[in-house]
Design a protein that fits this description.
Elements (H helix, E strand, L loop, with lengths): L1 E7 L18 H16 L4 E8 L12 E3 L8 E3 L14 H12 L7 E7 L4 H12 L5 E6 L18 H13 L3 H5 L3 H6 L5 H10 L7 E7 L6 E6 L1
Parallel strand pairs: 1-6, 2-5, 2-6
Antiparallel strand pairs: 1-8, 3-4, 7-8
Helix pairs in contact: 3-7
């Protein structure tokens, strides 16, 4: 059963080494992520599953100890997703899960075993919800760390250039995350999300499936778009 969830953005620039010690505009996002992880720890889960966007969906959760790196971003930095469970490495972590692993290492996570699941951004909402229900059933007390960015078209200098639909879309996501509104997350327009270059849709809908009958309440901890990309942080408990 799902007992808590944290929603965090996944830009590699969240990692100071990748940002070459700069990117102070992300300090508030980093602090909010730390607060959200504190909510997960307070829930005393038996298992933490990290869910994030990936080029191809995994066939199942990756085991604890799976490794990732930021070499693709010019930084010789390796991370590990929780403690090694001795069940195999599970392959290289996608960037979103590597950022999550960095967040967990940064906060000294040791409260429960960790697994990871990469989800293809275009995965159908029904399949996302089904994956979430499966994750929620993996242990008596399950927590999710859900990684994903909002639209990437909030300003003229955004990666996808300006789209006037981006800000209202992100506002709807922020409202749904702040209210733990699973129906609103499932009702998000997948075609529009693709056009707005949203990476978080599939992970958010996995969360919605996991939380269907959990009765959780939500708190929005951060909502900003410093590079024209929506970065949202929320905690459900």
């Amino acid at each position: 059963m799902l007992v808590a969830a944290a929603v965090c953005p996944c830009p590699p620039l969240l990692v100071p080494e990748v940002a070459a010690g700069a990117a102070p505009e992300l300090d508030s996002a980093r602090a909010a992520c730390t607060d959200a992880l504190g909510v997960l720890a307070a829930a005393r889960p038996d298992l933490l599953v990290v869910v994030g966007p990936a080029e191809v969906s995994g066939s199942g959760p990756q085991p604890g100890g799976a490794r990732g790196s930021f070499r693709g971003f010019g930084v010789d930095l390796e991370v590990r997703l929780g403690r090694d469970t001795g069940t195999g490495s599970g392959g290289e972590l996608p960037p979103s899960l590597a950022v999550a692993a960095w967040l967990l290492e940064r906060t000294g996570w040791s409260d429960a075993p960790v697994e990871g699941l990469g989800v293809e951004e275009s995965l159908a909402s029904e399949r996302c919800a089904a994956a979430g229900r499966d994750l929620a059933a993996r242990a008596g007390r399950v927590a999710l760390l859900v990684m994903g960015d909002g639209s990437a078209r909030r300003t003229l200098k955004a990666p996808g250039y300006l789209d006037e639909r981006a800000e209202p879309f992100d506002a709807g996501v922020a409202r749904a995350l702040g209210e733990a509104d699973t129906s609103a997350l499932m009702a998000l327009d997948g075609v529009l999300a693709h056009e707005l270059k949203v990476s978080g849709l599939a992970p958010w809908q996995v969360l919605a499936g996991a939380a269907e009958d959990a009765g959780l309440s939500g708190t929005l901890l951060h909502d900003d778009a410093p590079y024209g990309v929506g970065y949202l942080v929320a905690a459900w408990s």
